Amino acid sequence: MTVDQVALLPAYAAVLTAVAVFVADLVAPGRRGPVLVLGVAGCGVTAVLAWVVGRAGPRSTFCSAAGCSYAADRTAAVVAVLFALLTLGVLALSTATLRGGGVPPGEYCFLLACSLTGGVVLGAARDLISLVVAIETLTLPLYALVGLRRRVVASAEAAVTFFVVSVVATAVTLLGAALLYAATGTVHFGRLASALSARSSLPSLPLVTVAVVLLLVGLGFKVAAVPLHAWAPPTYDGAPLPIAAYLSTASKLGGVVAIVLVTVGPLRPWLDVAGPALAVLAALTMTVGNLVALRQRRMVRLLAWSSVAQAGYILAPLGAFALVRTPSFLPVAVAATVAYAAFYVLLELGAFGAVIALRGAGDGGEIAEYRGVARRSPWIASAFGLALVGLAGLPPGLAGLFAKVTVVRALLAGGSAWLAVVVALNAVVGLAYYVRVAAVLYAPPGSAVPDAFPGSPVSPAGPAVPRPAVPWAVAVALFGLTAVALVVGFAPQLVLDAADLAAGLVTGAARP
User: Which of 51, 146, 283, 456 has the smallest count of CB within 10 Å of its CB?
Assistant: First the structure.
């Protein structure tokens, strides 16, 4: 087995970031500044090294006769850069939480850097074992981060819920991978795809079908897809707000990357099974997420159920390939998934950034407590409103509108008109709660907050919560996210072209 140390440089940078933060906290315990500076610098170095190594040419390591388990190519570079930027954004949004939220800064930044390591490795994984290890490295630190608010019962309950459901999901994923290994004798993507393409030589076709479905359902946990979705609302609501933002963006992005890699790689010969499974998961996920979000009265829980619904939109294009199996359509489906994921992550992080700016080190609170926020904080309310209408797919949030158009267009091109109709109907349902929250921001003081269902009881008005002072790092992060959302809203081709390029890289590299 050969080991290319240069290919591992981005992963080394992420690991060294965690070690540096850990040592800094030992030297200066409880100091917020040093660990934040080291965390930010480490994210920057990781992104630069990943880009340089990826652009220099494909480099593979941990290679044997069966294939290579780790490939530092352009796909891995893009994924690593995205995770580094998301971690950087979450660190910027964490300044208020670390200052007044009862959260130890050393442990917080150390665990975030450990999670970043999993994200960096994930994009380069080229066998099922490496993929699962990367996913778990991304997720394991989050159990502790969710429960890191000391003396807060909701935080501990959220961590336990997240841990228990995650263990079940990991067991399901490993069972699917084990069944695939039993049927093919390999876990490497290239050889696995070759073995699965020769169906006549497989010992049991029903066994492989069950393995494919179990693998996809287990990985669906990371994007909070049905049926492994109920952990998201209590976990998001109990976690520190920046960690809830990380879970809804970086962790979900990790699930999307994992599903795309296995779908267009080892499972490509079985897209007639994987496609319908993903289509059903997508339809159920967006429908359940939107319907339950209609009745939410806590802000973070509403954003959590919204993220469940958004996961359905992200997965939907991959389900269309079951009907159109021509190789030329696969990049179209992957590009639509990548584009929607990019638009979603940007808008979702902006929404959480606005909540953090309004609530400081506290929790998300009740939706009724945001009544009249626009009168006290017009700029923050404008950024929040833009993110909400963008997630709904309404102008002036043009980024979200183009994202949904891209998904529907891919579904129609793939012959999945029924799934396109489901997406359209769910987009209409989603308008009810997104517009409801946006209206609350501009409602006059003293008014009650109506539920999304006409005729149902109204939420009590509740006392207005004074806005805490916004740290400059949070303000800069929120301004940057809003500015980028506006730019890609008026120039969506920037994201769509990048998504087409990424889809070409993934589908081309995945050919056995």
Answer: 456
